[in-house]
Input
Amino acid sequence: MCSGWVEAVFLGVDSPVRRNGKSHATIVVVAWYIRGMKRRLSASIDEELLAAAEAAVREGQAPSMSALVEEALRLQVEKSRRLAAMGAFIATLDEERGRPADDEVDRVMREWRAESVAAAEPAAPSEPAHPLSDAA
Output
């Protein structure tokens, strides 16, 4: 039989501790490594986030705490890579074509905001055609 600590590590959670008046728990994360190998990682997580993660696992939204944390890390890495690629693309455009004038950027931003607001507004309900009208 496993000791209490080993069972907690297996579940991905070490005992909660309080630091600076905040409740934290240490979770052990199994992350992907070269060719599918995994490596253990210990991280301190805010108690509220940990409770939400545990609920997600309990409700079947993730197969395990490790899988949930691994997916969150994967999404963050992908987001960082996309942002870096966009930054490089914008820098290349600025270098090749010059930076757009501030008034042009302001005009485009106003148009995008107007389009976003219009897209977010619910569409007006259309009246159904009368069964005896020519449209029917």
Q: What stands out?
A: Residues 1-14, 28-35 have pLDDT under 50 and may be disordered. Helices lie at 4-11, 47-58, 65-97, 102-120.
